[in-house]
Design goal:
The protein contains nine helices and no strands. Helix content is 70%, strand content 0%. By secondary structure, the chain is an all-alpha fold. It is globular and about 65 Å long. The two termini are 34 Å apart.
Amino acid sequence: MFHTSFGVFAIIFGMVLPFHDEEKITIAFIFGGGISVLDILVRLPLYHFFVRSWKDTGQPFFQVIWVRNIFLFLEKWLLIYPNIIRESERGKPSSSIHFAVGVLVPLLIGIPLWAVVPSVVIFSFGDPAARLMGMRLGTKKMWSSGTKTWEGFIGYCFAGGIGGSLTIILNQWFPLYPANQSTLTSALVVGFVTCVSAYFESMCEKDGSLMSEFIDDNLLAPFVGSVAFYAIATAGVT
């Protein structure tokens, strides 16, 4: 529900609300930047210095009980209980940061909003479907030493395709795509980008390496999807 809510928010914010694209991009940077600052410059320092037990002492670096208790209470009910972060991610940047970077970097390099919004929607619908399908039905591994499954890949494509199709359906009431881009072109691009996004999402295995912590599917899939969407759509795919 947390991931899917980002897709619903992208549709409402990116298509339905009557703001100019420049205003939407500015708000996205303010919102995404604010989340990043709170996570990296507030949550992580508080956790590492007031909560985390250091190996040499077995105690937090600063032993301020009231700060620790307030942090643990807020962390539990605002982050862990709603599944925004997992227990294993407590001392690392949250998935929200990876997602914000995956959305903001395409905008920063000039990818238009009409290419970023459907890519975000595709990922937001597809990623939780991949996880659920992989956990419940997954048997055939995509990579011999990995955990991603073909069932999860199919789940991503199915749900992501539905999410992307919603942007095409709503486009007749809330124009998003360029006026010269046909519905058929939009549908073909959505289908292609859904498969590309699903493939790159499947490559992000959490194998414990440092690189796998930085290259997260929440970052890679929206970024690659946005770039691919713009590249294919402007190449005149019909």
